[in-house]
């Protein structure tokens, strides 16, 4: 690969990285805010910050690679993208919950919280991805 092509790729990537960061941070803060509010704990802002640090790991491992793939064919608020985010959110929440609770049984799949958190994680990431990264205004 020629040097100017590498330089062009790096330049294109550096232009987009802040948008990935804003999307990731907004998703983490949104999900952790909802989790703190609905848990009815008195953690407040500290809880939002702490939970955001826990939530960023599965987002980075599962959602950001999918987001990069989707950004090759951008569509704002695409229902197909939302469904795929849900698809990847289910195993991400399962694995992360299992690791945090040291419980690798399938019991988690019978709880409403598992599905609610998976859906919310996908919804927030899809929303902020559409706001910050997806360039086209056509919805599917």
Describe the protein.
With 140 residues, this protein is mainly alpha-helical. 77% of the residues lie in helices and 0% in strands. It contains four helices and no strands. The chain has helices at residues 3-39, 44-70, 79-101, 112-132. Helix 2 crosses helix 3 (79-101). The N and C termini lie far apart (36 Å). The model is unreliable at 136-140 (pLDDT under 50).
Which SSEs are present, and which pair or pack?
Elements: H1 3-39, H2 44-70, H3 79-101, H4 112-132
Helix pairs in contact: 1-2, 1-4, 2-3, 3-4
Please name the defining characteristics of this protein:
140 residues; mainly alpha; disordered C terminus
Helix content range: over 70%
What's the pLDDT, averaged over the residues? 82
* Low-confidence runs of at least 5 consecutive residues: 136-140
Radius of gyration: 17 Å
Largest sheet: none
Task: Note the overall shape.
Answer: globular
Strand content: under 5%
SSE order: HHHH
Summing up helix and strand content along with how strands pair, one would put the structural category as mainly alpha
N/C terminus separation: 36 Å
The tally of beta strands, per DSSP, is: 0
Q: State the helix count.
A: 4
Describe this structure in a few short sentences.
The chain is mainly alpha-helical and 140 residues long.
